[in-house]
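Researcher: We're teaching a course module on how sequence relates to structure. For the next exercise, students receive a sequence and then see the predicted structure as tokens, so they can try to spot secondary structure elements on their own. Here is the exercise chain.
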Amino acid sequence: MSAFFGELMQTIARRGRRLLGRQRDTKAFVDGDQKPLAELCADLISIRGEASGVALSARILRRYAALDDAGRLAFFEALVYGFGPDAHRLERAVRDWRAAPDYATASALHLAAEPRRLELLRRLNLAAGGTAALVAMRAELMALLPQHTDFRVVDQDFVHLFASWFNRGFLVLRRIDWSTSANILEKIIKYECVHEIRSWDDLRRRIDPPDRRCYAFFHPALIDEPLIFIEIALDTEIAGAIEPILSTGRWPADADKLTTAIFYSISNCQKGLAGVSFGNFLIKQVVEEVSQDFPQLSAFVTLSPVPGFAAWLKQERSSDSSVCLSEADRKALATIDRPSWWRDDDASGQVEKSLCAAAAYYFLRARNRQGLPLDPVARFHLGNGARLEHICFRADVSDKGLKQSHGIMVNYLYDREEIDSNHEAFSVGRVIVASHMVKNLVPALSSREMTVQSN
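Model: And here is the predicted structure for the students to work with:
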């Protein structure tokens, strides 16, 4: 079906190019490649014919793809300052609404307030490969945002459109296994961002055994391009470390004894779709899919990284005003400055209590300016209705795991009967639903700083 629509759009584009070639009286179209790109974009908005519009959209996208850094910067500046709302139309709509504030004038005001770049992006999307080109364009825009905050209005327009174009109703869930096309498997290797896939054999160990699963969301407009994928280990108990899951020498568990699905890696594949949430839909649907194959499963948990913990703890250890570390904690935590401390059971025993207590404080009390947990993975899972279940010590002793979290990982529990209530508690009241095991690591939790809901 996707191939059919692609061929249809290419046919329309070819016809449009022939039509443009016949319009000798319209110099802007005939000599389009000699015109500034912003003027071509203005021409595109003014075109009424669909075929000619598709052809010009394809031309604009080709021109954009050939731009250098300075050219892209100028293009986005044009989108900000040259393709906002029509000021005169907006002024008239405001006057009409003030004179007669009814549904008709409100609707007219809404339409007048829409920036012209939204229509430009919609029309660019009609070109063959337009959706993929716009996703890539937004990724390039995002790289410029830290230095060009005025570009944020354009980014908001991208997110607004992508939220509709990548609505859950358009997404298709597909299982990834060893029979999946090599093209997609290569992208799974490329896009894995939690636990690096080091070889084809490593990939096969993650997706081929009967106690392993991998699922991905796809969109019809992005052929063979996964949007997000999740890797799952099926086991007889909740995992507290990543090494046994990824071990090269492990034996598959007995299918009849499997009770637990462990989501140990979730990777977003398209940088240009950042901020467009697929994960909540993915997890819920994967739970249903896996449960159909293994109806005896009773627990659905994650084994999640804690990417910001080490940086936060470094700040706390260097601060004289830290309220979460006692002198005893500071002394114990000095152990993690020693090379390979985690290999020494005695050294690990000295640091475990203080490190896990600091991690619990990090999750339960450390907040950003919006009052949300500092940790992005925590925001994701808690927002999707999970419960913070367990803090896992020495769970990821890879170089990456030690660098970002001193080996700490976390289990989030997805209880199907509590997902909706947990989601509401977090979304509405910023309540972090946590197990007693986690809460007891910070016994002096202040009710003034946050509320933690009991099970």
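Model: If you want an answer key for the exercise: The chain has three domains: 2-165, 169-302, 309-453. The two ends are 47 Å apart (CA to CA).
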